[in-house]
Amino acid sequence: MYIDTHSHIYDNAFDKDREEVFQRALMTGVNMILLPNTDETTITPMMDFYENHKDNCRVMMGLHPEGVKEDYKRHLKVIEKELEKNCWIAIGEIGLDLYWDKTFEKQQIEVLKEQLQWAKQLSLPVSLHTREAFDLMFKIIENEQDGRLNGVFHCFNGNEEQARTAIALGFHLGLGGVITYKNCDVKTFLEKIPLENIVLETDDPYLPPVPHRGKRNEPSYMIEVAKKIAETKQMDIDAVSKATSENARKLFKL
Question: pTM of the predicted model, to two decimals?
């Protein structure tokens, strides 16, 4: 059994064959898929998929940093209202993204801090999106950490020191297709990271693993991530499946 801890299978990239993609996931052994929200526009498609696949899906609610624009306060109010429902397993995905544009950096920080407060109030883990912002993210988490914050550094692609800092702060590393890429630094220290601190993910339809690079990613491809971890750690792939799935179950209270 595998748990994909970060999938956007509700994305319009799957509009033509979503059910086929879902069935392939089940056939591959991925029988639990966790769906993070991104902004106001993704709530309905995400919830539609969840309502039809409750045995194999769980949902998160949050405002993605790329959704923080001029009207971010309105979006944030919509997200906060949604949190009144009791179906959420996490706040996500939330975070900081300073890769393309730093115009709304101040607002991203404000929105992140607000959502971290929600996570603590609701006793929910968080799914953190962090791009070109590890140092700033660590500073914020350190200031907010009072023993109640935990979650995943989603799509982790930092260095060894950053990996250890994330773990020391009480977080898991979400590993996906990127670790199969030649230029990924995580492979160089992956064997040093305890399996108990790792969960698997796809971030589909993005970041497909080798040998599917260049294609649309999907949950069934997560087996390639497990293979890479097993190969790097010189262990049986079933052990990777068992450990990472148990990590996800505990973290998200599945």
Answer: 0.97
